[in-house]
Amino acid sequence: MGGVRRAALLTAGLALAGSTLGLVRDLAIAVVFGAGPDVDAFLVAQGLMNLVLGLITGALAKAAVPVMARAVDAGRPAAGMASVRAALGLACLVLAVGAGAVWVGAGGVVALLAPGFDAPTAALAVELSRIVLIATVLITATNLLAGAGQALGRFGPSALQSVGFNLVMIAAAAVAGPVFGATALAWGFVLGSAVRLVLQLIPLRAARLPAWPTLRLRDEGLREMLRLVPALVVGSALSSVNTLVDRAVASTLGPGSVAAVNFAGRLSSTIDLLLVATLLAALYPRLAAAVTPARRAELRDLTARGVAVLAVVMVPIAAGMALAATPLVRLVYGYGAFDDTAVALTASAAGVFAVGIPVLAVREVAARTCYALGDGTVPVVSAAVGVAVNVVLDLVLAPVFGVAGIAAATVVSVAVATGVTLAGLHRRHRAVPPLGRLGGGLALAAAAGVGTGWAARLLVGSPADGPLGAALVCSAVGVGVLAGYLPVLRLTCPEQFRLLRSLPSDLRRRR
């Protein structure tokens, strides 16, 4: 058990390091390029690459994990690796066709994904798209081989891949970006993807397992993977549609809008990911162990605890980010080429994105509970509903409210998808605890926190521009939010308040 705990802590630590470096990567890109057409073009090029990957390869990589894991458990890792190599060979064939077609038709695809780009930005997006398509093979191989390494009990290399990738991207943006422009970002993406792949070869080399692709299309393990692919393709496609639609709509709002939505979304998602990864590191295994009908009460209790802990932590963070969006964006990104216009544009989206942070965290708990129960239907249905809501609201809100409208569409779609997930979890498994009292108490505490946070914002006024002034405003708002939030939370949700007070000691014991 101690080895498992150490491995889990190592994986969580590397994941947190990778997420932090991802934020540094975004900062490097912001400083060199600002929120302008070069970043817009690069982000659309990434979206085009994801479109190719979404054909089959991402789903195939997910389907390979259980096949390899069972082979390892049976003492036949070489047989499992043979199936993984066959899957890699098939994926390379699919990518050769898909990437080749997209390379030839890159101009038309970019016009579809970014209809608002002017001619120079569209031409740059086409050029960058053809470069990043090289990474499709590297990313697919990385995903397949990372799954094989995890089945062998080696989790470090798969968790380390984001660290290596982000270090390369930081160097590409900061060192090569000023000289070669956005092309440096595209080639940095390819080189970073190669570094990720090399890291996954370490556990396979230690186990003396070859990793070259083969064309053994009659392999039984490969056939098993292919039976799982259709359902997984749906989930993979849905996860990419929202981003593609957001960027397509943002491209019609003027230069820098795609970049602003990306930077704002990354700020919220990084904070969410850091805290979710930390606070729920010990919850997922316990959920999986409590899925039997006889332990359904325990499952509901674990779900309630996960929702409560995340909600009470995320609500004041969301309130503080929403109230201090402009100084926060200035503090994180406002350097170099990221001028006042870029700060204002990004902050208008960041303040709205922040509202959705607690809802996204609750959805994560609910979705993980579904997966622990072996139910993939509810998350897929909720994702499909969320995509439909997001697409409609993007088209309605963006022309009126700009990038803030795109952010609002995302927040509403996440809220609707969360409601669908909780409803499905309750209807199919009776695994949702009563949340009405918690929701009401948190709403009152949040309102109090917003009131005192806003008062603190007014009290501090408008200090001098720059990092110190932005940090002062963010600190004042944060203290103000907590000053109103915590006393009301103690009165309305005493049990959750005790959970919040015990959280630091729980985390220390977990170390």
Can you walk me through this structure?
With 511 residues, the chain is mainly alpha-helical. It contains 21 helices and no strands. The chain has helices spanning 2-33, 37-53, 57-73, 77-104, 106-113, 119-132, 135-151, 156-180, 182-206, 220-250, 257-279, 283-289, 296-323, 325-333, 340-355, 357-372, 377-401, 403-429, 436-460, 467-492, 494-510. Helix 4 runs parallel beside helix 10 and helix 11 runs parallel beside helix 18. The longest helix is centred in the first third of the chain and has 32 residues, at 2-33. It is globular. Residues 1-5 have low confidence and may be disordered.
Features:
511 residues, mainly alpha, globular, disordered N terminus
Summarize the entry for a quick read.
By secondary structure, the protein is an all-alpha fold. 85% of the residues lie in helices and 0% in strands.
